[in-house]
Design a protein that fits this description.
By secondary structure, the chain is mainly alpha-helical. About 65% of the residues lie in helices and about 0% in strands.
Length: about 200
């Protein structure tokens, strides 16, 4: 093991590279062991099992992604921040499909709470949305709207599912415009319990 220089971080990085090459769902301990030229058993001194390895890849990828988003949104607000956030998200998802897939798995909440990258993701995302005047529970609803929109678009684009001749990039920009309008005019709950009304 020492000759191979195995560490949990090195294994996670190699697994992330493998995920981009063959797909996150195809990452296995056996494939990773072959990459290092060692037996499968050699890995168990560094990762507990496949789920542990995949969680490490998810945390690594999440950290990489939020680092790029943080740089993109720095000094921006409103639609500019939203567009920069969205573009950084899309670029990472399309450039690193295996890593991106890892960010979509469900992670134990205790690990999320202990992860600086996951905390930073929440801070940056919620901070951007608070600039639209949102508070809880609307913040959580808005985060889910952004995540589902970004993920759905990127997932479809990555498989070539958009067959119409319209430029996909233009459609992406229009989707961001629509999200900005929605966030700016978020329906607010009425104090007397009436249905939500659009902001003036």
């Amino acid at each position: 093991m020492a000759r191979a220089g195995l560490t949990p971080d090195r294994l996670a990085a190699a697994a992330a590279e493998l995920a981009d090459e063959v797909g996150f769902e195809n990452v296995s301990l056996s494939a990773l062991a072959r990459r290092f030229g060692v037996k499968d058993a050699s890995l168990y001194s560094h990762v507990r099992n496949l789920q542990d390895l995949r969680t490490r890849v998810a945390l690594l990828a999440g950290g990489e992604m939020i680092d790029r988003i943080a740089v993109a949104v720095a000094g921006r607000a409103g639609r500019d921040a939203l567009a920069a956030f969205a573009d950084a998200y899309r670029e990472y998802a399309l450039r690193h499909p295996g890593r991106y897939a890892a960010t979509q798995i469900r992670i134990d909440q205790t690990l999320v709470a202990d992860s600086p990258a996951m905390r930073r993701t929440a801070e940056i995302t919620y901070g951007m949305l608070r600039a639209y005047g949102l508070d809880e529970p609307d913040l959580t609803d808005a985060v889910r709207l952004l995540r589902s929109t970004f993920h759905g678009f990127c997932a479809l684009e990555s498989t070539g599912a958009f067959g119409a001749p319209r430029d996909v990039r233009v459609s992406w920009e229009r989707a961001v415009d629509a999200l900005h309008v929605t966030l700016t005019n978020w329906p607010r709950k009425q104090p007397d319990g009436r249905p939500p009304q659009l902001s003036p």
